[in-house]
Design brief:
The chain is of the alpha/beta class. The chain has two domains: 185 residues, Rossmann fold (3-Layer(aba) Sandwich); 66 residues, no CATH class. Helices cover 38% and strands 24% of the residues. The strands form two sheets. A six-stranded mixed sheet has the order 6-7-8-3-9-10, with helices on both faces. Strands 2-1-4-5 form a four-stranded antiparallel sheet. It binds adenosine-5'-triphosphate. Adenosine-5'-triphosphate binds next to α1 and α10. The site of adenosine-5'-triphosphate has 13 residues, from α1 and α10.
């Protein structure tokens, strides 16, 4: 992969929470146009890694480049970079007293000076993209969990960000809604020319739409490759995670174990 193919480049990245290194020595390139799944046991540092991409957490060492530039630590430059990131956080974050359309319009109202009729048209397009144009006037409480997630997705897409970041997009959804959301992630990625990073525990629902899978555990990347390579992996850490075994190299309480390892690092 050449530098221009990578939309995210991490080099010898070390991320700390408090005094403790959650991740260290992370090298990773994410190819433009790909859907990349980031897996790992609870507490392994997936959300922490996302925080580094969005500039919420500065590296303790190493570098983070997103959209071809080092992530600024603060100020206007960081706000500008964030406009290029569509982030769907855990939970939908929809405002309950606004309709679906009003929720999707929020980022456009906040970050652009577009006239109201243009915003209305853009909102209709985004809702159409997630298959919910007819639900424009519904309030979040009137939507199913899967529909609400898709409205949140439309809102994350509002400013046409080239990079989408999904943190646990399937939590709380039934299997059918999981399938719908993951197919949508893939379809939007391809039709809109995006790059997508999906952090999730839902390995089996996610792998079919994924180009590249990364597993983090024990403070580092323990696997990086295609879904087929992941499924064929014989690495005990990877197998334990994939097969959901309680006993294995990853201690059951991975948060505590990580803390101990870092003390030694
Ligand atoms: N704001 C914070 N302050 C201090 N420690 C934190 C903070 N956020 C996360 N941590 C710690 O950092 C470690 C990694 O947490 P993180 O949330 O990144 O893991 P995760 O892989 O996303 O977990 P999960 O799958 O449960 O969401 C954990 O030990 C967690 O307790």
């Amino acid at each position: 992969m050449t530098a221009s193919d990578a939309i995210v480049r991490l080099r010898q990245l070390r991320l700390e929470r408090g005094e403790r290194a959650v991740l260290r020595g992370i090298d990773l390139d994410i190819a433009r146009g790909s859907v990349v799944a980031l897996f790992g046991p609870s507490g392994s540092g997936k959300s922490t890694l996302l925080s580094a991409l969005t500039g919420e957490l500065a590296p303790a060492a190493g570098s983070v480049e997103v959209l071809g530039q080092p992530v600024p630590s603060a100020g206007r430059a960081l706000l500008e970079l964030r406009k290029g990131l569509g982030v769907l956080l855990q939970g939908n974050g929809l405002l309950t007293d606004l309709t679906a359309a009003e929720n999707v319009a929020l980022p456009l109202r906040m970050h652009t000076d577009l006239p109201a009729p243009v915003i209305e048209r853009l909102v209709a397009m985004k809702l159409h993209a997630v298959g919910l144009r007819a639900a424009a006037d519904a309030y979040p409480r009137e939507l199913s969990g899967g529909m609400a997630r898709r409205v949140a997705l439309a809102r994350a897409l509002a400013l046409d960000p080239p990079l989408m970041i999904y943190d646990e997009p399937l939590t709380g959804l039934d299997p059918i809604a999981c399938g719908v959301v993951m197919s949508l992630v893939r379809r939007l990625n391809d039709t809109l020319g995006l790059t997508s990073i999906v952090v999730t525990h839902h390995v089996h629902e996610t792998l079919p739409v994924t180009d590249h899978a990364v597993v983090i555990a024990d403070g580092g990347i323990v696997f990086s490759g295609t879904p087929a390579e992941l499924q064929g992996s014989t690495d005990p850490l990877v197998r334990q995670f994939l097969d959901g075994q309680p006993d294995g190299p990853i201690p059951f309480d991975s948060r505590g174990a990580g803390a101990n390892r870092q003390d030694a690092a």
